[in-house]
Design goal:
about 575 residues; mainly alpha; 3-stranded antiparallel sheet; polysaccharide degradation; membrane; carbohydrate metabolism; 6hp_glycosidase-like_sf; Endoglucanase
Length: about 575
């Protein structure tokens, strides 16, 4: 049968009895035989059956082509890593966690709370609920009211003096100044010990009381309260707060108020207390400004009405002041830091004041800080100013002198020198064997530690004692040996801080502690210098002072340079 080929030839259509499978197989054989040259891989793939195809050496990922081996190895590695990560996560989540506890607090931190609680035990007035001294209660709520001769009718509050029920403003204000100084320098350490709010509460209890003892809203005053209570030591018939051994809560007799009209030392010390506290409470702007105003008023009074507060009264028996020139420098320095007013710095660096304060003649108590003589504290404070701000002329002469003198009395604390004797146990005798040596020791320990931290903060490795150079760490070591002695490393193996260690005095130095309410005994003791030294040494030694807070009110020492001129344009 023939059909027509549309392309110009006959088309034969023949019937064939062979099946389609036979014809297909014959055509494949024919095609293979007809090939006269080798085919490439692509061409061969046209001819190879499904069972005969070769594995590809590469994998086409669309954007890139990679080796099949690399591809398989990479995918396998990722899967294996995923399985391993999942296994580790499972272990971490199922195995009990062992959290690392912070290291236990050091001895200085442990003793810090005991030292602060002393002030809780000494509070006068209506006590807050959080006072945490169970044998103390409200006391002497009629202070001021019971004395018709005084203008100040509300004199509740403040602190009793050690074992007596008298409130002496002179040592009390020094204690508040020292506490404020320690907070300004070491607030981070107080915070780490959980005691920052506690110490600030203690300071405010004192400054709130001081504001009641003079007309703090006035710019000019003519009197200030020096003392509440009577301390007659003759044993007369009238009850008083020294020889009547009774709990303050049980006092029902009238307590006299002692005012002074010429008391430069007391007023300047109170000014220092309020000025330093104003820096502590600088975030409470209204209260801080109230403290600053009161400090200015008190300092003006101290300069206008010259005289020693303890002349002609019983304060000379308990806290006699030997002069007021050191308080002038001390108060002026704190007022400069609190206000930034350069007139206070000019006064503090006046050579005549330094001379009258004994800065140039030495003596057996040179470099010994205490409630009567603040020269050493002032020298350290003004050395701080020179180290960090370096104000230069016209202050540099006295600042350099004070800095050098600070270096000298720091040398006297070291065991290589013989300015002061030491006991067999190693306690330095700063008061040359007189009673109550520890209050001088703790003040020296604080000064040594804070001056060491000043040098470190100023990148100063140490200082010279004559031809010998000593590292700043030597001062810290001195402070540690003295505080360790007080905390129990002494021949008696006894801690002198009530409540600290295994062997310590059982009663705080307060008459209420030996006449306990409900037979509960106190477990606290201390003073401001002790607290200051403990917090300075506590915690990590790498955590030093707060370098800038004390300068928060101090303006730049030099005029700000003008901005650079604008770029020149043609």
């Amino acid at each position: 049968m023939y059909g027509r080929d549309p392309w110009g030839g006959p088309l034969e259509i023949a019937a064939d009895s062979a099946t389609d499978d036979d014809r297909s197989r014959n055509l494949q054989d024919y095609d293979r035989a007809a090939l006269s040259r080798p085919l490439d891989e692509t061409q061969q793939s046209w001819l190879l059956g499904p069972g005969e195809q070769k594995k590809k050496k590469y994998v086409d990922l669309g954007c890139i082509i990679v080796s099949r081996k690399i591809f398989v190895w990479t995918v396998g590695t990722i899967l294996a890593a995923g399985l391993l990560a999942g296994f580790i996560t499972l272990i971490v989540k199922t195995v009990p966690r062992h959290r690392h506890r912070p290291p236990p607090p050091d001895n200085y931190t442990l003793a810090l709370n005991k030292g602060l609680m002393f002030f809780n035990a000494q509070r006068s007035g209506r006590l807050p609920k959080h006072n945490n001294v169970s044998w103390r209660g409200n006391s002497c709520l009629n202070d001021g009211k019971s004395d018709s001769s005084t203008l100040f009718k509300d004199l509740t509050g403040g602190y009793y003096d050690a074992g007596d029920a008298i409130k002496f403003n002179f040592p009390q204000s020094f204690a508040m100044t020292m506490l404020s100084w320690s907070v300004i320098e070491y607030s981070a350490k107080y915070e780490a010990a959980g005691e920052l709010n506690h110490v600030k509460d203690i300071i405010k209890w004192g400054t709130d009381y001081f504001l009641k003892t003079f007309n703090h809203t006035a710019d000019t005053i003519d009197r200030v309260v020096a003392q509440v209570g009577k301390g007659d030591t003759t044993g007369g018939p009238d009850p008083n707060d020294h020889y009547c051994w009774m709990r303050p809560e049980d006092i029902d007799y009238e307590r006299p108020v002692t005012e002074c009209h010429s008391c430069s030392d007391l007023a300047a010390e109170m000014a220092a207390a309020l000025a330093s506290a104003s820096i502590v409470f600088k975030d409470n702007k209204a209260y801080s400004q109230k403290l600053v105003h009161g400090a200015k008023t008190l300092f003006k009074f101290s300069r206008d009405q010259r005289g020693r507060y303890s002349v002609g009264n019983e304060a000379s028996i308990f806290y006699n002041s030997t002069g007021y020139w050191d308080e002038f420098i001390w108060g002026a320095t704190w007022l400069y830091y609190a206000t930034g007013n350069s007139s206070y710095l000019q006064l503090a660096t006046t050579p005549g004041l330094a001379k009258h304060a004994g800065a140039f003649w030495g003596g057996p108590f040179y470099g010994v800080l205490n409630w009567d003589n603040k020269l050493a504290g002032t020298q350290v404070l003004l050395s701080r100013l020179r180290l960090f701000l370096s104000p230069g002329y016209p202050y540099e002469e006295i600042l350099r002198t004070f800095h050098n003198q600070t270096s000298i009395f720091m040398c006297s604390f070291l065991p290589y020198y013989t300015s002061f004797n030491r006991t067999r146990g190693g306690l330095i005798q700063l008061n040359h064997g007189a009673p109550q040596p520890l209050q001088y020791v703790v003040n020296a320990a604080f000064l040594a530690t804070v001056f060491s931290d000043y040098m470190k903060a100023a990148d100063t490795p140490g200082w010279y004692c004559g031809p010998h150079f000593y590292s700043a760490d030597v001062l810290r070591e001195f402070a540690e040996t003295q505080m360790n002695y007080i905390l129990g490393k002494n021949p008696r193996k006894m801690s002198y801080v009530v409540g600290f260690g295994n062997h310590y005095p059982k009663h705080v130095h307060h008459r209420g502690a030996s006449i306990p309410k409900n037979k509960v005994k106190a477990d606290t003791a201390g003073n401001a210098g002790l607290v200051a030294a403990l917090v300075a040494l506590s915690g990590d030694s790498d955590v030093g002072i707060d370098k800038n807070t004390i300068f928060s009110a101090v303006p730049p020492m030099f005029p700000t340079p003008p901005p650079p001129p604008a770029p020149w344009k043609p």
